[in-house]
Design brief:
homodimer; three-stranded antiparallel β-sheet
Chain lengths: 314, 314
């Protein structure tokens, strides 16, 4: 059994977070992860408050364990979702793509703990000062919206910079990655890509098939030209987007090109038009299984690796 | 003490490779690392055979321990350097930027062991088939010429794909990174950036100062537009190069822009015109010290982390 300080801090049994992925991480997936003892995370994505409220209530019908809502601060309904988080007494909120400072007071008053995703030391420090109870240091190998620094150099630099617990994200799909994250100083991990193929994940089967077939070099980061890199599987959509970037397309044009592409991937499994968000670990994801089996495999694999850690030491 | 199978395979005492960095890794640095028990590596860069011969001989005056020559296969004098490696009976050759298949027979006949740097599973498999005794799986967080996959997802995927030993490179600057690399399945590490500030490293003091001042987000990868990404410190040169790329400069124009920039950084410490190759771990590099102290700190830190690996396991 592996239990770290993040478990006590958040009231969870196992130090495994399931990444908040827009159009993907709904009550079905999040409740399965929370019920398995990890931290299930409902992603608000760009959805309105009503969607988040509905998902939170649905999750609570399935589990009474702690869970989180992921709020992308670029969500046009961010203010509304922030209020729903208070009204529904959501125990934990994970924030991404910005600075949640203006919501911190209301959330803290409501007993909601705040765990921001950070891609740099400077943002980690700012979040600690703003009252975050922990941070998720996410490397560029992750799927979806990413920063530029990879997990291996990012995690120890964030660990050295803050005194709150650090959760590692990016590049972790099995127990070896969990064990490596602990060596870097993290006390938990966030895993996205491997949960894409969880049985409780409601995305289109075509999306799951693409992840299962992917290799180590099957992803690409698009959007760097407009300062907003996003990692997804190489696909007709990704090719068109990359071509537009190379040809110097304006930001509005690129945003228009991307609109609806996440839904087309997650809901329709539309290979030609969808943006299939996915991390560089896709090549390690090889089977559909229940979310609970993924949580347990991550920890059992980590325990094996950690117990053998001194095999070269004498 | 940490001793792994790569030590026996190559006849070295400690599983620490010093990265082969063009214009940087000369006999001075490489002999210090080899004498400390690690694997010192002389970089041929784009230099002719005569330079490599001179450096090999100089190293041998300073140490009788094993060392390697790094041969970038894009070196215009690659054939000549490959021959010098045979003539000088260099014990180990590390190859980068291509497929060394055409030299393998001559090297093997001369008793030279081949350890290619790889950035993908496919190249690792190809190198194993060609007769490599080990591979260095190098993540995108490294300095210099890079691939796109980060160390955390790359290393376990390469470990699963080949049966020869795997050395991890990219994002490693202290014992935590070494321990993490072991958890991922590597049996050694290659470290570049931290050795930039070794006392025996002969680069300009201005270069060392820039590395010591760098933070987690101080590097940038240029050259992606021509399929040849290179990671260096953000600098006037890097800005000009990135601007030219954004404006759609042709490959020849970019190559011309880059010519001489490595020398201007390493030899002249020319801040405005130099290309200061550097990895994302620069923020963890905080002091000048002898190469032997770096080797020992890496291993002592790893040993500490590995001995505490089960602290969360019960």
């Amino acid at each position: 059994m592996i239990r770290t300080p993040i478990c006590d801090l958040l009231g969870i049994e196992k130090p495994i977070f399931q990444g908040g992925m827009a159009w993907i991480s709904d009550a079905s997936l999040a409740s399965a992860v929370s019920e398995a003892g990890g931290l299930g995370i409902i992603a608000a994505g760009s959805a309105p408050g009503s969607y988040v409220r509905e998902q939170v209530r649905e999750l609570r019908e399935r589990t009474d364990r702690p869970f989180a809502v992921n709020l992308m601060l670029e969500n046009p309904s961010a203010d509304e979702v922030a209020e729903v988080i208070v009204e529904e007494r959501v125990p934990i909120v994970v924030t991404g793509a910005g600075n949640p400072a203006k919501y911190m007071k209301a959330w803290t008053a409501a007993g909601t703990k705040v765990v921001p995703v950070v891609a740099s030391v400077a943002l980690a420090r700012m979040m600690e000062r703003a009252g975050a109870v922990a941070v998720i240091a996410e490397g560029t190998e992750s799927g979806g919206h990413i920063g530029e620094t990879a997990t291996m150099p990012l995690v120890p630099q964030v660990v050295d910079a803050v005194s709150i617990p650090v959760v590692a994200a990016g590049g972790i799909a099995d127990g070896r990655g969990v064990a490596a994250a602990f060596m870097l100083g993290a006390v938990g991990v966030q895993v996205g890509t491997r949960f894409l193929v969880a049985e409780e994940c409601t995305i289109a089967e075509e999306y799951k098939d693409l992840v299962l077939k992917a290799k180590d070099i099957s992803t690409v980061a698009t959007g760097r030209s407009i300062g907003s890199p996003v990692r997804c599987l190489k696909s007709p959509f990704a090719n068109r987007y990359a071509k537009a970037e190379r040809e110097g397309a304006a930001a509005e044009e690129l945003v228009a090109l991307g609109t609806g592409a996440l839904r087309k991937a997650a809901k329709d499994g539309n290979y030609d038009e969808g943006s299939f968000l996915c991390g560089q670990v896709a090549g390690m994801v090889t089977r559909r299984e229940p979310a609970a089996a993924i949580v347990d495999d991550l920890l059992e694999g980590a325990e094996r690796a950690l117990r053998e850690a001194t095999k070269w030491v004498s």
